[in-house]
Amino acid sequence: MNKTTIKLVSLASVSLLMAACGNDDTAAEEDTTVFEEMDYTITGIEPGSGITESARNTLDTYDNLDGWELQESSTGGMMVELQQAIENEEPIIITGWQPHYIFEIYDLKILEDPKEGFGAAENIHTMTRTGLAEDMPDATAILDNFAWETEDMQQIVLDAQDVPFEEAAQTWYDENQDLVSEWTDGVPESDGQEIDLISMPWDTERASAHVMSLTLENHGFDVNVTSVDPSVLFQALAIGEADATVTPWLPMTHGAFMEEYGDDLVDLGPNLPGAKSGLVVPAYMDIDSIEDIPAK
């Protein structure tokens, strides 16, 4: 092919592209084709999980999601499909949540959810057993001061994909002494007083438990950390078998447990604001809201 032919082909291609961009019907057809490629399917995680139930509620909430299907899988399966789609720059919609380390790896966005099919944004709270403030005022002060951001937690969980959680938490702790010092500022060091932290077996909560354990240990406390299911966690705090936790998600994820046990424990308030779940897409997809998804 000679240079003149190449130029003519290039100009024709540009003209076609400009015409397509200027034609709303054509653009709509192209958008529809993108979602047809996905077979109008949302990639989910385990059946019975809270986010899966929220996703099903969302399908019923939005008229434009009529005909869409939720593909229940596993968290690992969802991650594999997301990775493959991004490597090939293909369209994909997943059920996701933040904090999660995938937001540190990939450029993703949680779609706006104006009808709150997934519920409002949540906060991760710090809670103690009744009476801890009187028994251990210094530990309670540190727990009450504890506050960090989504990116902090995500960084630890990301690093923990390659090293043990303890090592990942230690690295973050060492690199963020300015923030840690805000939690312990003015609090007298302990002389070895024991404190029992209780956590959950989620990676994000393992991160916060390890960081709080390091903070208390380096301030002279003897810390024990136990990881249990959420129902056991709330019950243990309510009956005084554990001293504190930095892991509950409210108002939705653990709201039922709070209704049952909330009167028998102390909520010190959020330590991480803006935790949320929803439908997640790669940033290269040209949609920003669940309402932008076309009906089948």
From TrEMBL:
GO biological process, one term: choline transport
Tree of life domain: Bacteria
Localization per Swiss-Prot or TrEMBL: Cell membrane
Pfam families with a match to the protein in the record: OpuAC (PF04069)
InterPro entries assigned: ABC_Gly_betaine_transp_sub-bd
Gene3D superfamilies, per the entry: Dipeptide-binding Protein, Domain 3, Glycine betaine-binding periplasmic protein, domain 2
One Gene Ontology term, aspect cellular component: ATP-binding cassette (ABC) transporter complex
Name of the protein in its database record: Glycine betaine/proline transport system substrate-binding protein
Annotated ABC-type glycine betaine transport system substrate-binding domain residues: 29-174, 194-293
Gene name as annotated: gbuC
Record keywords: Cell membrane, Membrane, Signal, Transport
Organismal lineage: Bacteria, Bacillati, Bacillota, Bacilli, Lactobacillales
Signal peptide: 1-19
Organism: Alkalibacterium putridalgicola
GO molecular function term, any single one: carnitine transmembrane transporter activity
